[in-house]
Amino acid sequence: FSQESGDETDLDRQVKNFLENSRNNWRDMNVPEADGQLLYDIIVENNYTRAVEIGTSTGHSGIWIAWALSKTGGKLITIEINKRRYLEALANFKKAGVLAYIDVQLADAHELVPKLEGPFDFVFSDADKSWYINYFKNLDPKLEPGACFVTHNVSRHNNYNFYEYVSQLPNYKTTLDGRGAGMAISYKKAD
Ligand SMILES: C[S@@+](CC[C@H](N)C(=O)[O-])C[C@H]1O[C@@H](n2cnc3c(N)ncnc32)[C@H](O)[C@@H]1O
């Protein structure tokens, strides 16, 4: 991992150990490591502190996000509809040492996302793809200028309609990153 540095904390060691040991064990549509690393870097570089994740699954991306938030003093709300995955995520967050940075919600994001109280500065959207534009519209009013909305599995060949939608918004700057499974990274420039 690229977080090597002289001032490694006990938490850094615990998270790295967990990620290294579970590298080949993610079975529930979890993000590839490259995408986890990218989420971590975006949060730390921008000093984000109020994060939302839609689609926890068993917690791979959530661990990277929460690890980054442990550096910025932030907190993550993550939402999962499937009870088995939610319970596994809870156990994984605990083992990785990042549970203190996460509010893990077992809920239908279609219902919970519109009710979330903002403002937020970072969103990772990775649940049901047919709802991507709705999640964006729900959260946009709760994002301040400078915030970042990252959407997974978006590329020229995948969920491109979402890219077409966000890229025509005048107050967002959206780029596609293809290092992992494809991410649309949208920075809010103005209200
Ligand atoms: C691609 S996986 C998420 C992977 C996760 N971000 C990771 O890297 O470990 C998508 C998850 O979204 C969940 N999901 C689908 N529809 C949902 C909804 N309406 N509300 C909440 N979660 C939902 C699925 O159960 C699934 O676990």
Distance N to C terminus: 36 Å
CATH architectural label? 3-Layer(aba) Sandwich
Mean pLDDT: 96
The CATH superfamily name is Vaccinia Virus protein VP39
Largest sheet entry: 7 strands, mixed
Low-confidence stretches: none
- Could you give the order of strands across the largest sheet? 3-2-1-4-5-7-6
Structural class category: alpha/beta
Fill in the CATH topology.
Rossmann fold
- How many H/I helices? 7
Instruction: Identify every distinct bound molecule in the structure, by name, code or SMILES.
Output: S-adenosylmethionine
CATH hierarchy, class: Alpha Beta
Report the count of strand segments: 7
Keywords: Methyltransferase, S-adenosyl-L-methionine, Signal, Transferase
Pfam families: Methyltransf_3
InterPro entries: SAM-dependent_MTases_sf (IPR029063), SAM_O-MeTrfase (IPR002935)
GO biological process, one term: methylation
Short description, anyone?
Helix content is 39%, strand content 23%. With 191 residues, the chain is an alpha/beta fold.
Notes on the protein architecture:
With 191 residues, the protein is α/β, with parallel strands linked by helices. The chain is 39% helix and 23% strand. It is built from 7 helices and 7 strands. A 7-stranded mixed beta sheet has the order 3-2-1-4-5-7-6, with helices on both faces. The longest helix is centred in the N-terminal third of the chain and has 14 residues, at 33-46. It is globular. It binds S-adenosylmethionine (SAM). Residues 28-31, 55, 57-61, 79-82, 85, 108-110, 126-128 line the site of S-adenosylmethionine.
